[in-house]
Amino acid sequence: xxxYIIRRLLxxxxxxxxxxxxxxxxxxxxxxxxxxxxxxxxxxxxxxEALRESMGLNKPWxxxxxxxxxxxxxxxxxxxxxxxxxxxxxxxxxxxxxAELAVAAVVIAVLIGVPVGVLSASRPNSMxxxxxxxxxxxxxxxxxxxxGIMLILVFSVTLxxxxxxxRMGGWQYLVLPAITLGTGATASIARLTRxxxxxxxxxxxxxTARAKGLRRLFVVYRHALRxxxxxxxxxxxxxxxxxxxxxxxxxxxxxxxxxxxxxVEAINNKDFPLVQGTIMTFALTYALVNxxxxxxxxxxxxxxxxxxx
Length: 309
Known about the structure:
- The protein has helices at residues 2-29, 34-39, 45-55, 61-73, 87-122, 127-141, 144-158, 172-201, 204-211, 216-245, 248-253, 259-268, 272-300.
- It is mostly helical.
- The chain folds into two domains: 2-73, no CATH class; 88-308, MetI-like fold (Orthogonal Bundle).
- Helix 5 packs across helix 8 and helix 6 packs across helix 8 (172-201).
- The longest helix is centred in the middle third of the chain and has 36 residues, at 87-122.
- The chain starts with a helix and ends in a 9-residue tail after the last helix.
- 31% of the residues are buried.
- The mean pLDDT is 80.
């Protein structure tokens, strides 16, 4: 297993380099001058030139990229052009807030999506199944920004039950952002769980277990669910990685101080090092979550452990 893990981690190197190069080129193609943004529109030309030279912005883009890559190998992601703080420190300061929000959203998605999917598959074409699947389709298609605004309007402005923005440490501040971020994941997990369970419930060993007189609830949760969990676990892993990187809208709507909101600010300020470091954090998190999901397969189905050799 350790050889498999090392092999997978080494395979991430070209992926990370490719993503970093793409983001670097994309940021350099966008209009705007970081030095101009920092000093203001009326800054003298000699001050602008001096600032560009001090930050290395007057060098060709490939020289800037190679310098960044050389420092990144040493775990030095540079300094923010806006705050002059270390990029790693900026990211680590905001990462706990985004992780907290993503974990809460995944917990909501799993606690609601999996049971709903199982119950729908156990009673196909029933009233519960039809209502649940319509709700799932609605959740998948509902825009996060619209849902967030509606939740604020109802629960913060009208009912005054929950705060509308910020992160002051209380669980109340987490509820609305987590529901907004987790709605789409809940719907996707419910639909996939239903589909996987329907396939498994048609298998011979399930019919045999039922023929032996085992209770339906026991057969569904003890025999069928475990075998249906592999695609569901894959979806949960992908959703978690996607929630980490897709929390930008939710964090902006609820003024949540995470790295998604920081990324928006960094893009507006043409803060190349901070954008680069944030995107790398998202990519690395996504890859590590996928690796953890692959390892979890072996615990759910021992037959898959041969893939680690």
